[in-house]
Q: What sequence folds into this?
């Protein structure tokens, strides 16, 4: 199909404008109401009908994955900085904190993340981004194990789950920063090589 | 009011029969569908109208608290056995596992438990039972600290939250028993006195 094909210049620009407006509205609604925000409200604020929303994002997970994608620039930048650290232990520590912050973006986000981890369904739009984050966590955990910082029986996936937990706990709003710091210390003391009970 | 007062023998028996039928139906529905189970379905199965359900249990939390109450006999029995253990460290370990099992009763139970912990609202029917469980956790944690088994900076409440976490993670279905054992070890290594980094 030529560039002058069925989708001419004007309609294509409209399509992209609608998509951008939907992503922006969705981000605002997710921030305010959590991941269960009204999709009707999102379409309305973006100035499109529900049909247009569903053509762009056939499921809530698809919309959520696309919004997370737009937010991932910050995480990618942090990962780049973390990758340059010399100390494997510090790399792992900072990465777990970056994950926790990323997962805390919207209230209720940890649940669909856990569902994606459980199902391992390639059709779930959240599966691929999660797999990528889990792979990075495993890589940093293995490097920290080789450097003698992390107990051999700990898996990177366990630490990924711990980061999701901290985000979930933070999201419930039950806990001040001091309590969250104690929970982070609980995990960190828990994975240290020097504390290996075996 | 005399025993022959406004509520005669027959109506009172009806009221108690309805309550028992509602609790039994609710337990079945919560077990099958999680804490978000249809209340209409519960009333229907108990053979009463929605009005009767709401007179007995004005909110979902009230129904949930009452069902948990009927299930707490097992926890109370375990607590009695645990209280007789000589080793403060083992007492804490077994109590945390009993909590985790109790919180795993219904899918979705950890969320309203966290809400109760956050709000500390005496009108929330889940607040009182949770406070009791938190108090027991704090008591066992302090005893284990006095015996030199638990790091001084760890609070019983942190370990209560860790038990809720394990139940939540189990409830998402993402993890086999081996993974759960690793997460339990992560917490246990994390709170041990001998691993105190300070």
A:
């Amino acid at each position: 199909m030529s560039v002058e094909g069925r989708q001419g210049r004007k309609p294509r620009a409209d399509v992209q404008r609608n998509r951008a407006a939907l992503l922006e509205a969705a981000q605002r609604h997710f921030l305010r109401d959590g991941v269960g925000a009204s999709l009707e409200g999102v379409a309305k604020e973006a100035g499109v009908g529900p049909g247009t929303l569903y053509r762009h994002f056939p499921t809530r997970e698809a919309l959520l994955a696309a919004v997370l994608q737009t937010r991932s620039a910050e995480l990618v930048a942090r990962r780049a900085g973390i990758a340059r650290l010399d100390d494997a232990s510090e790399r792992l520590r900072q990465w777990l904190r970056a994950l926790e912050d990323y997962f805390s973006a919207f209230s209720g986000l940890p649940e669909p993340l856990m569902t994606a981890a459980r199902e391992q369904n390639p059709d779930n739009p959240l599966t691929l981004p999660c797999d990528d984050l889990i792979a990075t966590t495993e890589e940093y955990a293995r490097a920290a194990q080789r450097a003698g910082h992390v107990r051999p029986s700990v898996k990177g996936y366990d630490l990924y789950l711990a980061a999701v937990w901290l985000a979930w706990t933070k999201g419930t709003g039950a806990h001040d920063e001091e309590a969250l710091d104690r929970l982070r210390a609980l995990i960190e003391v828990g994975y240290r090589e020097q504390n290996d009970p075996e």
Summary: Chain B has a mean pLDDT of 89. Residues 82 and 179 of chain B are 25 Å apart (CA to CA). Chain B touches chain A through 35 residues (CB under 8 Å). The domain at 65-195 of chain B is CATH 1.10.357.10 (Tetracycline Repressor; domain 2).
